[in-house]
Every structure is written in C-alpha cells, then in structure tokens.
Amino acid sequence: MIIPKLHYISQGNSPKEHLENIQKACSSGAELVQLRLKNVSDKKYLKLAEEAREITSHFQTRLIINDNYKIAKTVKADGVHLEASEVCPTVVRDYLFSWQMIGGTANTLQDCETLISKDVDYIGLGPFRFTATKEHLPTILGLSGYSAIMDVLDTKTPIIGVGGITTDDVKDILATGISGLAVSGAITRDFNSIKLFNQLLNASSTEEKRHTFE
Prior knowledge:
The protein is α/β, with parallel strands linked by helices.
C-alpha cells in the first residue's frame, strides 16, 4: 500500500466549511484528505463523512476518517487515523475491510514502536511546532525531536510529520528521514500551496529516479 506523501487534515469553523475546504483541497491536487471533526454526534459525523466520500470519490482522492473507525467502514473510506488515546489498532484492523489503511498518532519513540508492533500503515509524528488545532498539545518535537527519533527508529512504516508545518519546513524535515507531511493550517490558508508542497516532497524522489535511469 502506497501512502501519499502529503495529507490534508480538514479545518473549518463549521462542518460545512470542512466539506468546502476538502473540495478545495481535492480540486487543488490533494491525493489524500483526512476528515477531522470534533464534538459532533455520530449521526451528524456519518452524514458529513458520506458527503466527504462523495467529494473525494469524484476527484479520486483518498479519504481518511479521523478516529471514528465504524464510520470509516460504513462509508467505505480509504482508512482511519487513530489519535493517541483511542482504541487499539489491532481491534480496528479486525473490524475494517482488509484494504482500509490505519494511521496512528505518535509523540515519542516509544509511541512509534508501539504502533509499528500493531501493524499500522503509517504514523503521524508530531507536533512539529505549536498548533492551535489541538487542545492539550503534547511535547513540541521540532527538527531536533524528529532527528532524535528517526536516528533510532528502524522501520519501513512511513512516518508523516504533523503540526504547524509550512512549505519553508519541508526540506529540513525530509532531511531528518521523515517521509511525508500532514498539513492543516498552511493549506487551509492557501490551497495553492498544495502544488508547492507536492513539488518539494517529490523533488527528493525524482532526484533519486533521475540518477537510476542514466
């Protein structure tokens, strides 16, 4: 399973705005979006997830549902992203369709190792810097935190940096060994930045390819 290098995490002042922003992200070239809604009832979440699924299917963009794995299965989303305190990935794996992916949130080396032992498909490692999208923010990692974890972590599981990341950070973050990014604020402020994020993220892989074909 190939995990896209750029994830857009939905943002908005209302559920309707989340959906509008998901549509903008898809039409700007996002390959994967995560519907991340807090404090809505399951009934409303399901309705919004169905609408998000329609939008993303139209653009052939992958859809990940944040936390609610039952809804992810119902709407046949491409997967679910589990926050640190939520249910065990192994339980979720048994519940979901075999083709659905599972991502998990990590803040420490131990978090990463635990998630890898539970066979997640990717790990969201953060926060990189302070971000207002989350309450009770764990330790800010920054480049030094990323380097410290990536230097020790031996895994083929894609590690996705998350938390207040902008296009200016991409090169330095990739240099730590992180393989992709999940971005919310910077993209919501300017959907055109998706193109630049994708260029910066793919620059490293096209360089490798160019050398192989000579």
